[in-house]
Here is the input.
Amino acid sequence: MGLKVWQEEVGAATDWAASPGRCGRSCSWWPFSCSPGFGQIIGGREARPHSYPYMAFIQIRTPVRRKVCGGFLVREDFVMTAAHCLGSQMNVILGAHNIRTLEGTQQRIPVVRPIPHPGYSPLQSHSNDIMLLQLANRVQRNRFVRPVPLPQTQNRLRPGTRCTVAGWGLTGPNTRTDTLQCVQLRVQRDGVCRRRFVSYNGRTQICVGDPRQRKSAFVVLSLTPHLHFICSL
Here is the structure.
């Protein structure tokens, strides 16, 4: 699939939901090099159950192993995630808080068509690491499951903006949790991350965190391909 065709697919799946942020509300921020999901949150807390109704837990089977990723619902029949999460068989669970418990709020839907970015290469895992997943059927929209409100195309996050990171997975070097976790971080100036990360790219990444605090989203001060950021605009 060519880049132009892929961009048209993304536009069809997401443009309808784009809207400016409202005062007192939050909207998502998802640059092309980043995607949500299963990583590490240090210094955070357990999220209030179902307070992020667009979060998706993705079960993946490949020819050699099984793995899991996270994502978020951008339309009733599309989930956005990382391209490195591609598998031969994929199922999405929405409406989950504890991923090890069969909750009555959960909706499990197979993926019928993964649409990875055509420019993604496993050898350059941080470039174009983004993918759309077309679901077999539309979700049943309710207070536990609904699409994320998307930002306008040209919205920019200014230093000092407070963001929330949400995801499942590790809460420390050797500790794991099955419940959705979240942590609040602040957007930093690009120069802060350039001094710490050689590969940092301010065009496709967001510098977040605070080196003086023990709160971290996988890598302190840098947006990673594992977690979902929500920033008030």
Observations:
- Residues 3-14 form the longest helix (12 residues).
- Residues 55-135 form a domain with the Thrombin, subunit H fold (CATH 2.40.10.10).
- The helical segments are 3-14, 190-194.
- The chain has a mean pLDDT of 74.
